[in-house]
Specification:
Chain lengths: 130, 130
Amino acid sequence: MIDPAPALEALAFNSDGLVAAIAQQHDTGEVLMMAWMDRAAVEETLRTGRVCYYSRSRGKLWRKGETSGQSQRLIEFLVDCDGDTVLLKVEQLGVACHTGHRACFFRSLGAAGLEEIAPVVVPPETLYGQ
Amino acid sequence: MIDPAPALEALAFNSDGLVAAIAQQHDTGEVLMMAWMDRAAVEETLRTGRVCYYSRSRGKLWRKGETSGQSQRLIEFLVDCDGDTVLLKVEQLGVACHTGHRACFFRSLGAAGLEEIAPVVVPPETLYGQ
């Protein structure tokens, strides 16, 4: 457990009470996803070492992996220069993306348009038990 | 020059007409900064190969490096699963952060609070000619 107070002091939550959060696999450097955190999500993440976001669509805390099992263990918590974005270095269990891709950034723009550059690792129906 | 049309079709601009943009140094994997792009910034970036953001504080296009000289050359343009965030793999000239640090994420939370884990590479007064 890390004391969240110094981070909370440095963070500049926006008018919705949120900061942007980028998750990066700590050892490979792969950028996995971008989501949002409110104050409670930051506190819970630092208290438990398990990454928790705030889901804007559901309007509540989103404990990453609580449904899919694909959780993120926090390795390092970094704050940017103006405090409105955090970089979470994590150990991603399984896949980060709800599509079953390892990372959400699996489409790359090339001469032929947007191309999928990474495979589906886990079928989404497996992730969500349909 | 890359045709921006497939990217623009896939992007889900928010109510302010923006998508989040994460810049990552293409070879080291270092996450440099997070900023925003509007449609025009995406078009200009893909047309010129030089990264252009939208500055929310100034309310206009922000050609990264136009004042500081610390520009970003686009290497790869990736779109996330729901189209509201892009990942820009770039070649960063000099430093990405206005503080003179290489990246904006130079503060890490540890037992003793937030600690600067990276040096100022270029003094800010040099960057902005003060």
